[in-house]
Write a structure and sequence with these properties.
The chain is built from 15 helices and eight strands. By secondary structure, the chain is an alpha/beta fold. It binds thiamine diphosphate and magnesium ion (MG).
């Protein structure tokens, strides 16, 4: 076994290699400043505690009637995003949506109400956990693998076409790269140099299926680059490294350097869906589970912050007490809120809701506002 720990950023990083080397030395929190590191820690703690609270409440009363794909163990990427996105940037998440929801600063009580199917939920109680959106904070999710990515590409195109200085971010699992729509999105984003960031949280499995049973190689970044996208692999449980990488890539995208993909190697510590244990399927090894439990992103950063004296037992207790208090009222709110009533479906038709979409559609259909020369000057010939 090699003596040096696993490198943090490396073209050769794969899930198999992580298992072979088996050790990881996280980036020091001081390298990005202790304030930012502490903010990352608080975000991850908050996400973990929210997920555990929902996890524990899911079955006793059976009032949450939608599937939930918990993200325990995968907190580093959403926490890092929360510190680098701007409010007008758009995030498009896949089914494992809660981390991205909070990365966008979307409100906790509307997530809880949505999961309880209530009218006060972010999507009026009609979407549940895996399709939830919160329009006010520019957050959208979708259960169809690579489906939300396709919409992110359209949004990024709209930003570029309209000279809007924002970016679209799509969060997916490695399973999304099994889909044709993923490669169409990558092709178009690369060709048109769109302001798009794709974050792949590679947790090795899609449901119970190992990436190497579905794909010849664990090398998404290598396959994406020829399409004209930058692509970086990182050890995705290192929140400091995730912040460094995402800040750098997002700054480049804002600067007009075109789209990028960041592949973050991580692991979900919970089952694929719901709180039930799915280990009876024996699809993950005991040693593998142990490695990722020991390299949980919160524990890695907490150790670094304790070394600096920024985090102590008392600090942890305070943070936990604050988050517990924040969570507590939301179950009551969700349970007491009304279910959505019979509704005027016409009012929910979004056909007329987006002047930007109307403009773009007008262009695509060769409408009278469309000026091909002006469009090509902005976007290149198409
Ligand atoms: C087009 C499509 N096919 C199949 C499914 C069923 N499905 C839901 S989650 C999932 C696995 C997704 O794995 P991955 O993208 O790696 O994300 P993870 O669950 O590991 O976070 C599958 C196959 C789906 N939602 N959409
Ligand atoms: Mg996966």
């Amino acid at each position: 076994m090699p003596n040096s720990p696993l490198p943090s950023i490396d073209n050769l990083l794969t899930h198999r290699r992580i298992q072979e080397i088996g050790r990881y030395q996280p980036q020091r929190p001081e390298t990005i400043g202790l304030d930012v590191s502490l903010a990352l820690y608080c975000q991850m703690k908050r996400l973990r505690m929210i997920e555990k609270a929902l996890f524990n409440e899911y079955h006793p009363a059976d009032e949450m009637r939608c599937p939930i794909h918990f993200c325990i163990g995968q907190e580093a990427i959403p926490a890092a995003l929360s510190q680098v996105v701007q409010s007008a940037d758009h995030i498009f998440s896949h089914h494992r949506s809660h981390g991205y929801f909070f990365a966008k600063g979307s409100p906790m009580r509307e997530l809880f109400a949505e999961i309880y199917g209530k009218a006060t939920g972010a999507s009026g109680g009609r979407a549940g956990s895996q399709d939830i959106s919160h329009i006010e904070t520019n957050f959208y999710s979708g259960a169809i693998l690579a489906g939300a990515l396709s919409i992110a590409v359209g949004t990024a195109f709209g930003f570029k076409h309209q000279n809007i200085p924002q970016i679209a971010i799509s969060g997916c699992g490695e399973g999304a790269t099994d889909e044709g729509a993923f490669w169409e999105a990558v092709n178009y984003a690369g060709r048109m140099k769109l302001p798009l960031l794709i974050v792949i949280e590679n947790n090795r499995y899609a449901t119970f299926s190992d990436q190497l049973k579905r794909q010849a190689n664990d090398n998404i970044c290598e396959r994406v680059r020829p399409f004209g996208m930058r692509a970086t692999k990182i050890f995705g449980n290192d929140a400091v490294l995730a912040w460094q990488t995402l800040s750098n890539e997002i700054a480049r995208i804002r600067n007009g350097d075109g789209p990028a993909l960041v592949e973050a190697y991580t692991f979900r510590l919970n089952s694929h869906v719901g709180p039930e244990d799915d280990s009876f399927n024996l699809y993950r090894g005991r040693e593998e589970m142990k490695f990722w439990e020991d390299n949980c992103p919160i524990a890695l950063l907490e150790a670094g912050l304790r070394d600096t004296g920024t985090v102590t037992d008392a600090v942890v207790q305070n943070i936990e007490a604050e988050i517990e208090a924040e969570i507590a009222g939301h179950f009551k709110f969700a349970k007491e809120s009304p279910f959505p009533r019979e509704t005027n479906w016409h009012a929910m038709n979004w056909e007329d809701a987006s002047p930007l979409a109307d403009k773009l559609l007008g262009s695509a259909e060769g409408g009278s506002n469309f000026d091909q020369n002006q469009a090509e000057a902005k976007l290149g010939p198409y």
